[in-house]
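Entry type: protein chain
Record version: 2
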Amino acid sequence: MSTTEELQTLVLTTLDARGTIPNTKDLVASDNKEVDQLALLGALKSLSIADKEMVKYETIEEEVWMLTDEGNEIADKGSHEAKVFDAIPIGEEGIAISALREILGETAKIGQGKAFKNKWVIKNGDNLVRAVDSIIDQTRIDLEVIRSTGTHSDPKVLSELRKRKLCDKHKVISYSVSKGPKFSLTIEKQARDVTFEMLQSGEWKKANFKKYNFDALGIPPSGGHLHPLMKEMPTNKFVESSFWNFDSLFQPQQHPARDAHDTFFLKDPAICTQFPTEYLKRVKEVHSVGGYGSTGYGYDWKIEEAQKLILRTHTTAVSSFMLYNIAQQKEFKPVKYFSIDRVFRNETVDATHLAEFHQVEGVIADKGLTLGDLIGFMNTFFNKMGVRNLRFKPAYNPYTEPSLGKWVEMGNSGMFRPEMLEPMGLDPEVRVIAWV
């Protein structure tokens, strides 16, 4: 492929010799190949911009007929029917159809019918015999005409060859080019930036600078991409329903954390109505009357409370959603999820509390996990960060049992309760340890 500089030189020298280029499809590159019109457009644009104006060009749109790969092969080597005729020996015996197929393969099957239609061959028992002494391969001739001219004088021929998938109509774009007001055979290289050397030498005063193109596309900003962590555990949904943020975690609807002084509720839209129906029923039941070894909370669970949209108070809402998705899979596979993302609390801002902050969270789900696994993992987790003197003590979370609180406010952790996991559809043997 010719470079932009080579194409620019080709255009300028051709214009200098001929005055105009009526159609660039007639241009031939230095390697005697056709010029790529798309690459040529870049060269023309560069020569015609406002600060150069070396050439002017207009777009030419044409519909031309072009050969398919099979059509090009026939134009080079002959049609299927001609190959069938040529493969039949002269004489009354001809050739067995089975032998013809061994010689020509798929071509024998395709060309046989066309040869019969042209009355070039006849059948004699299981053999094919020549019916004429010689043939004219009109298909090949027609395809050669189309390849050289881009069309054919007979529309019926074009239609027939198109049905045989030997040619098709294509839109071809080329250009007519003429000299511009600043035409020259020499392309002056324009400076793009004022350099330190230019300032020192004073060259900037007489340099020919390239004009700014304020309509040109800029470099796409590198920011704003999703973090790779999102591929495993998408935590970028800040607005959440109370169902996933509270109810799915076996947190009762009368819990103080669900009050307006602890949670930001949305005004518009105010509610969410899309939930997994069967799972919703199981959550309602375990809250109201219990199940899975629990007596529940014994209150009248209301869907209206679960529908309320909030700014999520913890990323554990995402953990519950991920665990539910795992439960819907045919076969359980152990998983580890980890996230760092933003949460919101309607709290008084002071030295240790913010209305918006980032939360680190993780869950591990597998069969047979114990509290010892959680403590061992937490030791490793904090030791990696240089925190070595750890002490664990029990604490209460509505969705973990047993729970571990904090000696110094460092982290919270526990094992998710059966009342939370089993309504999702997880195997009773599956245990989930979590920390935040």
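Comment: The radius of gyration is 39 Å.
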